[in-house]
Design a protein that fits this description.
Rossmann fold, six-stranded mixed β-sheet, globular, alpha/beta, 596 residues
Protein backbone atom coordinates (compact mmCIF):
# COMPACT_ATOMS: atom_id res chain seq x y z
CA UNK A 1 0.00 0.00 0.00
CA UNK A 2 1.31 3.46 -0.95
CA UNK A 3 2.18 5.75 1.98
CA UNK A 4 -0.41 8.46 2.70
CA UNK A 5 0.04 11.90 1.17
CA UNK A 6 -0.93 13.41 4.52
CA UNK A 7 -0.95 11.90 8.00
CA UNK A 8 -2.28 13.61 11.12
CA UNK A 9 -1.20 11.67 14.22
CA UNK A 10 -2.42 11.96 17.80
CA UNK A 11 -4.02 15.38 17.39
CA UNK A 12 -5.47 17.02 20.49
CA UNK A 13 -7.04 20.46 20.68
CA UNK A 14 -9.26 22.24 23.16
CA UNK A 15 -10.84 25.69 23.22
CA UNK A 16 -11.07 26.78 26.85
CA UNK A 17 -12.59 23.84 28.74
CA UNK A 18 -14.11 22.28 25.61
CA UNK A 19 -12.23 19.33 24.09
CA UNK A 20 -12.70 19.36 20.30
CA UNK A 21 -10.66 16.24 19.63
CA UNK A 22 -8.20 14.10 21.54
CA UNK A 23 -5.74 11.58 20.11
CA UNK A 24 -7.22 11.93 16.63
CA UNK A 25 -5.58 10.35 13.58
CA UNK A 26 -6.39 11.10 9.93
CA UNK A 27 -4.56 9.65 6.92
CA UNK A 28 -5.27 10.83 3.36
CA UNK A 29 -3.95 8.84 0.38
CA UNK A 30 -4.26 9.44 -3.34
CA UNK A 31 -7.73 8.45 -4.51
CA UNK A 32 -9.31 8.73 -1.02
CA UNK A 33 -12.70 10.42 -0.94
CA UNK A 34 -13.38 11.11 2.72
CA UNK A 35 -16.45 12.83 4.14
CA UNK A 36 -15.92 14.43 7.54
CA UNK A 37 -19.22 14.37 9.41
CA UNK A 38 -20.44 15.44 12.84
CA UNK A 39 -22.62 17.98 14.61
CA UNK A 40 -22.05 21.71 14.29
CA UNK A 41 -19.49 22.70 16.93
CA UNK A 42 -17.80 19.29 17.17
CA UNK A 43 -14.65 20.60 15.46
CA UNK A 44 -14.96 19.49 11.81
CA UNK A 45 -13.90 22.85 10.35
CA UNK A 46 -11.15 23.18 12.96
CA UNK A 47 -9.77 19.74 12.09
CA UNK A 48 -9.76 20.72 8.42
CA UNK A 49 -7.82 23.91 9.30
CA UNK A 50 -5.26 21.80 11.19
CA UNK A 51 -4.96 19.58 8.09
CA UNK A 52 -4.44 22.71 5.98
CA UNK A 53 -1.68 23.88 8.33
CA UNK A 54 -3.59 26.99 9.43
CA UNK A 55 -4.00 25.98 13.11
CA UNK A 56 -1.47 24.27 15.35
CA UNK A 57 -2.89 21.53 17.61
CA UNK A 58 -2.12 21.36 21.33
CA UNK A 59 -0.50 17.96 20.73
CA UNK A 60 0.19 15.65 17.82
CA UNK A 61 1.86 16.12 14.46
CA UNK A 62 1.00 16.87 10.84
CA UNK A 63 3.01 15.15 8.12
CA UNK A 64 2.69 15.94 4.39
CA UNK A 65 4.69 14.06 1.76
CA UNK A 66 7.46 16.33 0.39
CA UNK A 67 6.29 18.00 -2.80
CA UNK A 68 2.59 17.19 -2.22
CA UNK A 69 0.35 20.22 -2.80
CA UNK A 70 -2.59 20.88 -0.48
CA UNK A 71 -5.49 23.20 -1.41
CA UNK A 72 -8.06 24.34 1.15
CA UNK A 73 -11.51 25.88 0.67
CA UNK A 74 -12.77 27.55 3.88
CA UNK A 75 -16.43 27.62 4.83
CA UNK A 76 -16.47 31.42 4.61
CA UNK A 77 -13.85 32.50 2.03
CA UNK A 78 -12.24 35.91 2.42
CA UNK A 79 -10.54 37.10 -0.77
CA UNK A 80 -10.57 40.81 0.08
CA UNK A 81 -6.76 40.94 0.02
CA UNK A 82 -6.78 40.42 -3.76
CA UNK A 83 -7.50 43.32 -6.14
CA UNK A 84 -9.25 41.16 -8.75
CA UNK A 85 -10.81 37.72 -9.25
CA UNK A 86 -7.94 36.89 -11.63
CA UNK A 87 -5.35 37.66 -8.93
CA UNK A 88 -7.21 35.49 -6.40
CA UNK A 89 -7.43 32.49 -8.73
CA UNK A 90 -3.83 32.87 -9.97
CA UNK A 91 -2.68 32.67 -6.33
CA UNK A 92 -3.78 29.03 -6.38
CA UNK A 93 -1.13 28.13 -8.96
CA UNK A 94 2.20 26.65 -7.94
CA UNK A 95 3.78 28.40 -10.95
CA UNK A 96 2.52 31.95 -11.66
CA UNK A 97 3.78 31.55 -15.23
CA UNK A 98 0.80 29.25 -15.85
CA UNK A 99 -1.65 32.16 -15.58
CA UNK A 100 -3.39 30.90 -18.73
CA UNK A 101 -4.82 28.08 -16.61
CA UNK A 102 -6.34 30.62 -14.23
CA UNK A 103 -7.93 32.40 -17.21
CA UNK A 104 -9.42 29.13 -18.43
CA UNK A 105 -10.77 28.28 -14.99
CA UNK A 106 -12.31 31.75 -14.57
CA UNK A 107 -14.09 31.38 -17.90
CA UNK A 108 -15.28 27.87 -17.01
CA UNK A 109 -16.75 29.16 -13.74
CA UNK A 110 -18.56 32.02 -15.50
CA UNK A 111 -16.63 34.73 -13.64
CA UNK A 112 -15.13 38.09 -14.67
CA UNK A 113 -11.40 38.21 -14.09
CA UNK A 114 -11.37 42.00 -13.55
CA UNK A 115 -14.13 41.93 -10.90
CA UNK A 116 -13.36 43.14 -7.36
CA UNK A 117 -13.70 40.23 -4.87
CA UNK A 118 -15.07 42.65 -2.25
CA UNK A 119 -18.10 43.34 -4.49
CA UNK A 120 -18.97 39.73 -5.37
CA UNK A 121 -22.22 38.04 -4.39
CA UNK A 122 -22.09 34.99 -2.10
CA UNK A 123 -22.31 32.60 -5.06
CA UNK A 124 -19.65 34.46 -7.08
CA UNK A 125 -17.30 34.55 -4.09
CA UNK A 126 -17.74 30.81 -3.55
CA UNK A 127 -17.07 30.05 -7.23
CA UNK A 128 -13.92 32.20 -7.13
CA UNK A 129 -12.65 30.36 -4.04
CA UNK A 130 -13.40 26.97 -5.67
CA UNK A 131 -11.56 28.06 -8.82
CA UNK A 132 -8.56 29.06 -6.68
CA UNK A 133 -8.58 25.62 -4.96
CA UNK A 134 -8.88 23.62 -8.19
CA UNK A 135 -6.67 25.58 -10.58
CA UNK A 136 -3.32 24.21 -9.34
CA UNK A 137 -4.32 20.52 -9.65
CA UNK A 138 -3.46 19.86 -5.98
CA UNK A 139 -2.65 16.42 -4.62
CA UNK A 140 -5.04 16.92 -1.68
CA UNK A 141 -8.28 18.94 -1.66
CA UNK A 142 -9.77 20.03 1.68
CA UNK A 143 -13.28 21.43 1.04
CA UNK A 144 -15.46 22.94 3.79
CA UNK A 145 -19.12 23.26 2.70
CA UNK A 146 -18.29 23.81 -1.00
CA UNK A 147 -21.95 23.84 -2.11
CA UNK A 148 -23.04 26.76 0.10
CA UNK A 149 -24.44 29.61 -2.02
CA UNK A 150 -23.98 27.61 -5.24
CA UNK A 151 -26.87 27.10 -7.63
CA UNK A 152 -27.83 23.62 -8.77
CA UNK A 153 -26.11 23.74 -12.20
CA UNK A 154 -22.84 24.73 -10.51
CA UNK A 155 -23.23 22.02 -7.84
CA UNK A 156 -23.68 19.39 -10.55
CA UNK A 157 -20.65 20.76 -12.46
CA UNK A 158 -18.57 20.57 -9.27
CA UNK A 159 -19.76 17.01 -8.62
CA UNK A 160 -18.61 15.93 -12.09
CA UNK A 161 -15.28 17.70 -11.63
CA UNK A 162 -14.61 16.08 -8.24
CA UNK A 163 -15.76 12.65 -9.47
CA UNK A 164 -12.91 12.77 -12.00
CA UNK A 165 -10.38 14.15 -9.49
CA UNK A 166 -7.50 11.70 -8.89
CA UNK A 167 -6.02 13.13 -5.68
CA UNK A 168 -7.07 12.79 -2.04
CA UNK A 169 -10.33 14.55 -1.11
CA UNK A 170 -11.59 15.46 2.38
CA UNK A 171 -15.06 16.97 2.29
CA UNK A 172 -17.40 18.63 4.80
CA UNK A 173 -20.94 19.15 3.47
CA UNK A 174 -24.58 19.06 4.54
CA UNK A 175 -25.66 18.09 0.99
CA UNK A 176 -26.58 14.40 1.21
CA UNK A 177 -26.78 13.88 -2.56
CA UNK A 178 -23.34 15.47 -2.99
CA UNK A 179 -21.79 13.30 -0.26
CA UNK A 180 -23.49 10.11 -1.46
CA UNK A 181 -22.13 10.42 -4.96
CA UNK A 182 -18.58 11.53 -4.14
CA UNK A 183 -17.40 9.79 -0.95
CA UNK A 184 -15.97 6.33 -0.30
CA UNK A 185 -14.73 6.73 3.30
CA UNK A 186 -16.29 8.41 6.33
CA UNK A 187 -14.65 10.02 9.37
CA UNK A 188 -17.17 10.74 12.14
CA UNK A 189 -16.05 13.38 14.64
CA UNK A 190 -18.20 12.83 17.72
CA UNK A 191 -17.58 13.98 21.30
CA UNK A 192 -13.86 14.43 20.75
CA UNK A 193 -13.34 11.04 19.05
CA UNK A 194 -12.70 10.52 15.33
CA UNK A 195 -13.93 7.17 14.00
CA UNK A 196 -13.19 5.99 10.46
CA UNK A 197 -15.38 3.76 8.29
CA UNK A 198 -14.22 2.46 4.90
CA UNK A 199 -17.56 3.13 3.26
CA UNK A 200 -19.02 6.34 1.90
CA UNK A 201 -21.72 8.55 3.34
CA UNK A 202 -24.55 6.30 2.14
CA UNK A 203 -23.56 3.82 4.88
CA UNK A 204 -23.10 6.43 7.63
CA UNK A 205 -26.54 6.32 9.21
CA UNK A 206 -26.59 2.55 9.77
CA UNK A 207 -22.96 2.53 10.98
CA UNK A 208 -23.40 5.43 13.43
CA UNK A 209 -26.61 3.99 14.89
CA UNK A 210 -24.83 0.67 15.49
CA UNK A 211 -22.05 2.45 17.40
CA UNK A 212 -24.51 4.46 19.50
CA UNK A 213 -26.48 1.31 20.36
CA UNK A 214 -23.23 -0.39 21.45
CA UNK A 215 -22.42 2.64 23.65
CA UNK A 216 -25.81 2.43 25.34
CA UNK A 217 -25.30 -1.28 26.02
CA UNK A 218 -21.77 -0.67 27.34
CA UNK A 219 -22.98 2.13 29.61
CA UNK A 220 -25.73 -0.09 30.99
CA UNK A 221 -23.20 -2.89 31.63
CA UNK A 222 -20.89 -0.47 33.42
CA UNK A 223 -23.73 0.94 35.54
CA UNK A 224 -24.73 -2.59 36.58
CA UNK A 225 -21.16 -3.49 37.53
CA UNK A 226 -20.76 -0.30 39.57
CA UNK A 227 -24.01 -1.06 41.41
CA UNK A 228 -22.83 -4.61 42.22
CA UNK A 229 -19.41 -3.44 43.43
CA UNK A 230 -20.96 -0.66 45.51
CA UNK A 231 -23.31 -3.16 47.20
CA UNK A 232 -20.35 -5.45 47.95
CA UNK A 233 -18.36 -2.56 49.42
CA UNK A 234 -21.12 -1.91 51.98
CA UNK A 235 -21.41 -5.52 53.19
CA UNK A 236 -18.80 -6.45 55.78
CA UNK A 237 -16.09 -4.34 54.21
CA UNK A 238 -14.24 -3.79 57.49
CA UNK A 239 -13.57 -7.52 57.96
CA UNK A 240 -11.95 -7.83 54.57
CA UNK A 241 -10.47 -4.37 54.21
CA UNK A 242 -6.82 -5.33 53.84
CA UNK A 243 -7.18 -8.15 51.34
CA UNK A 244 -9.75 -6.26 49.24
CA UNK A 245 -8.04 -2.90 48.77
CA UNK A 246 -7.43 -3.82 45.12
CA UNK A 247 -11.14 -4.38 44.55
CA UNK A 248 -11.97 -1.03 46.14
CA UNK A 249 -9.47 0.68 43.87
CA UNK A 250 -11.11 -1.06 40.88
CA UNK A 251 -14.50 0.28 42.00
CA UNK A 252 -13.03 3.78 42.08
CA UNK A 253 -11.65 3.26 38.59
CA UNK A 254 -15.07 2.12 37.34
CA UNK A 255 -16.70 5.24 38.76
CA UNK A 256 -14.10 7.48 37.15
CA UNK A 257 -14.56 5.68 33.81
CA UNK A 258 -18.33 6.22 34.01
CA UNK A 259 -17.90 9.88 34.93
CA UNK A 260 -15.54 10.45 32.02
CA UNK A 261 -17.87 8.92 29.47
CA UNK A 262 -19.22 11.75 27.38
CA UNK A 263 -22.96 11.52 26.91
CA UNK A 264 -24.37 11.52 23.42
CA UNK A 265 -24.97 15.08 22.22
CA UNK A 266 -28.65 15.98 22.36
CA UNK A 267 -30.77 16.75 19.35
CA UNK A 268 -32.20 20.08 18.38
CA UNK A 269 -35.82 20.27 19.56
CA UNK A 270 -37.80 21.72 16.69
CA UNK A 271 -41.49 22.47 16.67
CA UNK A 272 -43.79 24.67 14.61
CA UNK A 273 -47.13 26.09 15.65
CA UNK A 274 -49.27 26.21 12.51
CA UNK A 275 -51.28 29.04 14.07
CA UNK A 276 -54.82 29.70 12.97
CA UNK A 277 -55.95 28.13 9.72
CA UNK A 278 -55.46 30.33 6.68
CA UNK A 279 -57.96 30.54 3.87
CA UNK A 280 -57.91 27.82 1.21
CA UNK A 281 -56.24 30.26 -1.21
CA UNK A 282 -52.92 31.47 0.21
CA UNK A 283 -51.38 33.40 -2.72
CA UNK A 284 -52.61 34.13 -6.23
CA UNK A 285 -50.41 35.90 -8.78
CA UNK A 286 -52.05 36.96 -12.02
CA UNK A 287 -49.78 37.66 -15.02
CA UNK A 288 -47.07 39.30 -12.90
CA UNK A 289 -43.91 40.59 -14.60
CA UNK A 290 -40.81 42.32 -13.29
CA UNK A 291 -37.64 43.81 -14.79
CA UNK A 292 -34.40 45.00 -13.17
CA UNK A 293 -32.45 47.77 -14.90
CA UNK A 294 -34.32 47.01 -18.10
CA UNK A 295 -33.53 43.26 -17.93
CA UNK A 296 -36.63 41.05 -17.68
CA UNK A 297 -36.42 38.93 -14.53
CA UNK A 298 -39.96 37.58 -14.69
CA UNK A 299 -42.16 37.50 -17.80
CA UNK A 300 -45.97 37.52 -17.33
CA UNK A 301 -46.57 34.57 -15.01
CA UNK A 302 -49.62 33.31 -13.14
CA UNK A 303 -49.16 31.18 -10.02
CA UNK A 304 -51.39 29.88 -7.26
CA UNK A 305 -50.50 28.60 -3.77
CA UNK A 306 -53.13 26.65 -1.80
CA UNK A 307 -53.18 25.85 1.90
CA UNK A 308 -50.87 22.92 2.72
CA UNK A 309 -48.65 23.32 -0.36
CA UNK A 310 -44.89 22.95 0.20
CA UNK A 311 -43.30 24.48 -2.86
CA UNK A 312 -39.58 24.25 -3.63
CA UNK A 313 -38.21 27.08 -5.78
CA UNK A 314 -35.11 26.23 -7.85
CA UNK A 315 -32.98 27.91 -10.49
CA UNK A 316 -29.53 29.27 -11.20
CA UNK A 317 -28.15 32.16 -9.16
CA UNK A 318 -29.52 35.37 -10.62
CA UNK A 319 -32.55 33.66 -12.17
CA UNK A 320 -34.87 35.59 -9.82
CA UNK A 321 -35.81 33.16 -7.03
CA UNK A 322 -35.51 35.66 -4.17
CA UNK A 323 -37.13 38.34 -6.34
CA UNK A 324 -40.10 36.05 -6.92
CA UNK A 325 -40.48 35.54 -3.17
CA UNK A 326 -40.42 39.30 -2.57
CA UNK A 327 -43.06 39.84 -5.28
CA UNK A 328 -45.33 37.19 -3.78
CA UNK A 329 -44.92 38.60 -0.26
CA UNK A 330 -45.56 42.21 -1.31
CA UNK A 331 -42.03 43.45 -0.62
CA UNK A 332 -41.72 44.36 -4.31
CA UNK A 333 -44.47 45.64 -6.59
CA UNK A 334 -44.73 43.89 -9.99
CA UNK A 335 -44.33 45.97 -13.14
CA UNK A 336 -47.40 44.20 -14.52
CA UNK A 337 -50.16 42.07 -13.07
CA UNK A 338 -51.24 41.73 -9.45
CA UNK A 339 -50.67 39.54 -6.38
CA UNK A 340 -53.52 38.69 -4.02
CA UNK A 341 -52.86 37.25 -0.56
CA UNK A 342 -55.36 34.99 1.19
CA UNK A 343 -57.08 35.60 4.51
CA UNK A 344 -55.78 35.04 8.07
CA UNK A 345 -52.14 34.76 7.01
CA UNK A 346 -49.44 34.61 9.69
CA UNK A 347 -46.13 34.81 7.82
CA UNK A 348 -42.65 33.91 9.09
CA UNK A 349 -39.83 34.84 6.69
CA UNK A 350 -36.31 33.37 7.01
CA UNK A 351 -34.08 35.36 4.67
CA UNK A 352 -30.92 34.07 2.97
CA UNK A 353 -28.74 36.99 4.05
CA UNK A 354 -29.55 36.61 7.78
CA UNK A 355 -30.57 40.27 7.79
CA UNK A 356 -32.61 39.66 10.95
CA UNK A 357 -29.37 39.14 12.93
CA UNK A 358 -27.37 42.02 14.39
CA UNK A 359 -23.76 40.79 14.85
CA UNK A 360 -23.24 43.20 17.78
CA UNK A 361 -26.21 41.95 19.79
CA UNK A 362 -25.92 39.00 22.14
CA UNK A 363 -27.82 35.75 21.62
CA UNK A 364 -29.93 36.64 24.68
CA UNK A 365 -30.87 40.10 23.35
CA UNK A 366 -31.62 38.65 19.91
CA UNK A 367 -34.15 36.21 21.35
CA UNK A 368 -35.54 38.79 23.81
CA UNK A 369 -35.55 42.04 21.78
CA UNK A 370 -37.94 43.73 24.25
CA UNK A 371 -35.79 42.91 27.29
CA UNK A 372 -36.39 40.49 30.16
CA UNK A 373 -35.53 36.82 30.22
CA UNK A 374 -38.61 35.24 28.63
CA UNK A 375 -39.19 34.14 25.03
CA UNK A 376 -42.76 33.67 23.83
CA UNK A 377 -42.57 30.25 22.15
CA UNK A 378 -45.73 29.48 20.24
CA UNK A 379 -47.82 31.44 22.73
CA UNK A 380 -46.12 30.22 25.93
CA UNK A 381 -43.30 31.90 27.92
CA UNK A 382 -39.94 30.08 28.10
CA UNK A 383 -36.77 31.18 29.86
CA UNK A 384 -34.31 32.29 27.20
CA UNK A 385 -31.52 29.93 28.35
CA UNK A 386 -33.90 26.96 28.43
CA UNK A 387 -35.05 27.75 24.88
CA UNK A 388 -31.42 28.16 23.74
CA UNK A 389 -30.68 24.62 24.93
CA UNK A 390 -33.37 23.31 22.57
CA UNK A 391 -31.13 24.52 19.74
CA UNK A 392 -27.90 23.11 21.26
CA UNK A 393 -26.51 26.43 22.51
CA UNK A 394 -24.48 26.28 25.70
CA UNK A 395 -25.53 28.46 28.64
CA UNK A 396 -22.29 30.46 28.38
CA UNK A 397 -23.21 31.54 24.84
CA UNK A 398 -26.22 33.54 26.04
CA UNK A 399 -24.10 36.68 26.41
CA UNK A 400 -21.91 36.00 23.37
CA UNK A 401 -22.24 38.41 20.42
CA UNK A 402 -23.98 36.97 17.37
CA UNK A 403 -20.91 37.87 15.31
CA UNK A 404 -18.83 35.29 17.23
CA UNK A 405 -21.11 32.38 16.25
CA UNK A 406 -20.29 29.91 13.49
CA UNK A 407 -22.37 29.84 10.32
CA UNK A 408 -24.32 26.81 11.55
CA UNK A 409 -24.95 28.41 14.95
CA UNK A 410 -26.25 31.61 13.32
CA UNK A 411 -28.62 29.56 11.20
CA UNK A 412 -29.83 27.69 14.30
CA UNK A 413 -30.44 31.05 15.98
CA UNK A 414 -32.52 32.19 13.01
CA UNK A 415 -34.53 28.97 13.25
CA UNK A 416 -35.03 29.58 16.97
CA UNK A 417 -36.39 33.07 16.22
CA UNK A 418 -38.60 31.91 13.34
CA UNK A 419 -40.07 28.81 14.97
CA UNK A 420 -40.96 30.64 18.18
CA UNK A 421 -43.69 32.52 16.31
CA UNK A 422 -47.05 31.05 15.33
CA UNK A 423 -47.33 30.87 11.55
CA UNK A 424 -49.40 29.36 8.80
CA UNK A 425 -47.06 30.46 5.98
CA UNK A 426 -43.32 29.78 6.19
CA UNK A 427 -41.09 31.48 3.63
CA UNK A 428 -37.58 30.00 3.80
CA UNK A 429 -34.78 31.33 1.58
CA UNK A 430 -31.87 28.84 1.66
CA UNK A 431 -32.64 27.45 5.15
CA UNK A 432 -30.18 24.54 4.85
CA UNK A 433 -26.92 26.52 4.55
CA UNK A 434 -24.41 25.55 7.27
CA UNK A 435 -26.80 23.20 9.13
CA UNK A 436 -25.42 19.86 10.27
CA UNK A 437 -27.12 16.79 8.85
CA UNK A 438 -28.93 15.84 12.09
CA UNK A 439 -30.49 19.31 12.39
CA UNK A 440 -31.33 19.20 8.69
CA UNK A 441 -33.12 15.87 9.17
CA UNK A 442 -35.18 17.31 12.03
CA UNK A 443 -36.07 20.40 9.99
CA UNK A 444 -37.25 18.14 7.17
CA UNK A 445 -39.38 16.07 9.53
CA UNK A 446 -40.81 19.22 11.12
CA UNK A 447 -41.77 20.69 7.75
CA UNK A 448 -43.31 17.37 6.67
CA UNK A 449 -45.62 17.52 9.73
CA UNK A 450 -46.33 21.27 9.35
CA UNK A 451 -50.02 21.92 8.77
CA UNK A 452 -49.44 25.31 7.18
CA UNK A 453 -47.99 26.32 3.81
CA UNK A 454 -44.30 26.63 2.93
CA UNK A 455 -42.33 28.32 0.15
CA UNK A 456 -38.70 27.13 0.17
CA UNK A 457 -35.79 28.31 -1.97
CA UNK A 458 -33.09 25.64 -1.80
CA UNK A 459 -30.25 24.08 -3.77
CA UNK A 460 -30.28 20.94 -1.61
CA UNK A 461 -31.70 18.16 -3.79
CA UNK A 462 -32.26 15.64 -1.01
CA UNK A 463 -34.01 18.29 1.10
CA UNK A 464 -36.34 19.16 -1.81
CA UNK A 465 -37.10 15.49 -2.43
CA UNK A 466 -38.09 14.99 1.21
CA UNK A 467 -40.04 18.23 1.69
CA UNK A 468 -41.53 19.62 -1.54
CA UNK A 469 -44.91 18.71 -2.97
CA UNK A 470 -44.24 20.84 -6.05
CA UNK A 471 -41.27 22.50 -7.74
CA UNK A 472 -41.25 25.94 -9.34
CA UNK A 473 -38.29 26.08 -11.73
CA UNK A 474 -36.86 29.39 -12.95
CA UNK A 475 -34.80 28.49 -16.00
CA UNK A 476 -33.42 32.00 -16.63
CA UNK A 477 -35.82 32.88 -19.45
CA UNK A 478 -38.21 34.78 -17.19
CA UNK A 479 -40.68 31.88 -17.01
CA UNK A 480 -41.68 29.81 -13.99
CA UNK A 481 -42.43 26.17 -14.78
CA UNK A 482 -44.57 24.22 -12.29
CA UNK A 483 -43.81 20.52 -11.64
CA UNK A 484 -45.56 18.11 -9.29
CA UNK A 485 -43.35 16.36 -6.72
CA UNK A 486 -39.80 16.90 -5.49
CA UNK A 487 -36.44 17.43 -7.17
CA UNK A 488 -36.17 13.95 -8.69
CA UNK A 489 -39.69 14.26 -10.14
CA UNK A 490 -38.77 17.63 -11.64
CA UNK A 491 -35.63 16.23 -13.25
CA UNK A 492 -37.49 13.26 -14.69
CA UNK A 493 -40.31 15.36 -16.10
CA UNK A 494 -37.91 18.00 -17.43
CA UNK A 495 -35.90 15.44 -19.41
CA UNK A 496 -38.66 14.87 -21.95
CA UNK A 497 -39.54 18.27 -23.46
CA UNK A 498 -38.99 16.99 -27.00
CA UNK A 499 -41.50 14.18 -26.52
CA UNK A 500 -44.08 16.63 -25.23
CA UNK A 501 -43.49 18.96 -28.18
CA UNK A 502 -43.97 16.07 -30.61
CA UNK A 503 -47.56 15.53 -29.45
CA UNK A 504 -50.31 17.11 -31.56
CA UNK A 505 -51.15 20.60 -30.38
CA UNK A 506 -54.88 20.06 -30.60
CA UNK A 507 -55.47 16.60 -29.23
CA UNK A 508 -59.07 15.55 -29.98
CA UNK A 509 -61.33 15.11 -26.99
CA UNK A 510 -62.42 11.50 -26.38
CA UNK A 511 -65.90 10.63 -27.67
CA UNK A 512 -68.54 9.49 -25.25
CA UNK A 513 -68.20 5.96 -26.61
CA UNK A 514 -64.39 5.96 -26.41
CA UNK A 515 -62.81 2.78 -25.00
CA UNK A 516 -62.51 2.66 -21.23
CA UNK A 517 -59.17 3.09 -19.52
CA UNK A 518 -57.34 -0.29 -19.43
CA UNK A 519 -57.59 -2.18 -16.15
CA UNK A 520 -53.92 -3.22 -16.18
CA UNK A 521 -50.54 -2.22 -17.53
CA UNK A 522 -49.81 -2.66 -21.22
CA UNK A 523 -47.70 -5.66 -22.16
CA UNK A 524 -44.66 -3.40 -22.74
CA UNK A 525 -45.05 -1.60 -19.39
CA UNK A 526 -45.68 -4.89 -17.55
CA UNK A 527 -42.46 -6.37 -18.99
CA UNK A 528 -40.52 -3.24 -18.04
CA UNK A 529 -41.97 -3.32 -14.49
CA UNK A 530 -40.91 -6.97 -14.11
CA UNK A 531 -37.39 -6.44 -15.50
CA UNK A 532 -36.46 -3.22 -13.68
CA UNK A 533 -35.66 -4.83 -10.26
CA UNK A 534 -33.07 -7.09 -11.92
CA UNK A 535 -31.65 -4.10 -13.77
CA UNK A 536 -31.36 -2.16 -10.50
CA UNK A 537 -29.63 -5.13 -8.81
CA UNK A 538 -27.18 -5.41 -11.71
CA UNK A 539 -26.32 -1.71 -11.44
CA UNK A 540 -25.82 -2.08 -7.66
CA UNK A 541 -23.48 -5.04 -8.24
CA UNK A 542 -21.51 -3.14 -10.89
CA UNK A 543 -21.29 -0.15 -8.54
CA UNK A 544 -19.90 -2.34 -5.73
CA UNK A 545 -17.25 -3.81 -8.06
CA UNK A 546 -16.14 -0.37 -9.24
CA UNK A 547 -15.97 0.96 -5.67
CA UNK A 548 -13.80 -2.01 -4.71
CA UNK A 549 -11.58 -1.37 -7.73
CA UNK A 550 -11.20 2.32 -6.91
CA UNK A 551 -10.38 1.47 -3.30
CA UNK A 552 -7.02 0.16 -4.55
CA UNK A 553 -4.59 2.99 -3.56
CA UNK A 554 -2.16 1.97 -6.31
CA UNK A 555 -4.66 1.98 -9.18
CA UNK A 556 -4.07 5.57 -10.28
CA UNK A 557 -0.28 5.23 -10.30
CA UNK A 558 -0.49 1.87 -12.11
CA UNK A 559 -3.18 2.75 -14.67
CA UNK A 560 -4.50 6.38 -14.72
CA UNK A 561 -6.78 5.57 -17.68
CA UNK A 562 -8.48 2.72 -15.83
CA UNK A 563 -8.89 4.94 -12.77
CA UNK A 564 -10.55 7.72 -14.83
CA UNK A 565 -12.79 5.25 -16.70
CA UNK A 566 -13.92 3.61 -13.46
CA UNK A 567 -14.63 7.02 -11.84
CA UNK A 568 -16.65 8.17 -14.88
CA UNK A 569 -18.61 4.91 -15.01
CA UNK A 570 -19.36 5.14 -11.27
CA UNK A 571 -20.96 8.57 -11.80
CA UNK A 572 -22.98 7.28 -14.76
CA UNK A 573 -24.22 4.28 -12.76
CA UNK A 574 -25.62 6.57 -10.05
CA UNK A 575 -27.71 8.40 -12.65
CA UNK A 576 -28.85 5.18 -14.37
CA UNK A 577 -29.83 3.63 -11.05
CA UNK A 578 -31.83 6.72 -10.01
CA UNK A 579 -33.63 6.74 -13.37
CA UNK A 580 -34.43 3.01 -13.12
CA UNK A 581 -35.73 3.33 -9.54
CA UNK A 582 -37.87 6.33 -10.49
CA UNK A 583 -39.29 4.50 -13.52
CA UNK A 584 -40.14 1.42 -11.45
CA UNK A 585 -41.92 3.61 -8.89
CA UNK A 586 -43.85 5.37 -11.66
CA UNK A 587 -45.00 2.03 -13.11
CA UNK A 588 -45.82 0.63 -9.66
CA UNK A 589 -48.04 3.63 -8.87
CA UNK A 590 -49.74 3.29 -12.28
CA UNK A 591 -50.27 -0.43 -11.72
CA UNK A 592 -51.87 0.18 -8.32
CA UNK A 593 -54.07 2.93 -9.76
CA UNK A 594 -55.29 0.73 -12.63
CA UNK A 595 -55.92 -2.29 -10.41
CA UNK A 596 -58.03 -0.19 -8.01
Amino acid sequence: MAPPLMHLRGLSLRFGTKVLFDGTDLAVSRGDRICLVGRNGTGKSTLLKVAAGLILPDAGERFVQPGARVAYLPQEPDLSEFPTVAAAVTAGLADPAEAFRADAMIAEMGLRGDADPKLLSGGELRRTAIARALVGDPDILLLDEPTNHLDLPTIEWLEDRLAAYAGGLVLISHDRAFLTRLTRQTVWLDRGVARRHDKGFQAFEEWSETILEQEVAERARLDKKIAEETRWSRQGISARRKRNQGRLRALGDLRRERAEQRARIGQVKLGIDSGIASGRLVIEAEAIAYAWDGRPVLSPTSLRVLRGDRIGIVGANGAGKSTLLKLLMGELAPDEGAVRLGTNLQVVYLDQGRAALDPLKTVWDTLCPDGGDQVMVRGRPRHVVSYMRDFLFEDAQAKSPVGSLSGGERNRLLLAMALAKPSNLLVLDEPTNDLDIDTLDLLQETLADYEGTALVVSHDRDFLDRVATAIWALEGDGKVEDYVGGWSDYRRQRKAPAAAAAKPADKPKPRADAPRKPAKLSYKDQREWEQLPARIEALEAEQAKLEAKLADPNLFARDPGAFAAASDRLGAIAEERTAAEDRWLELELLREELSS
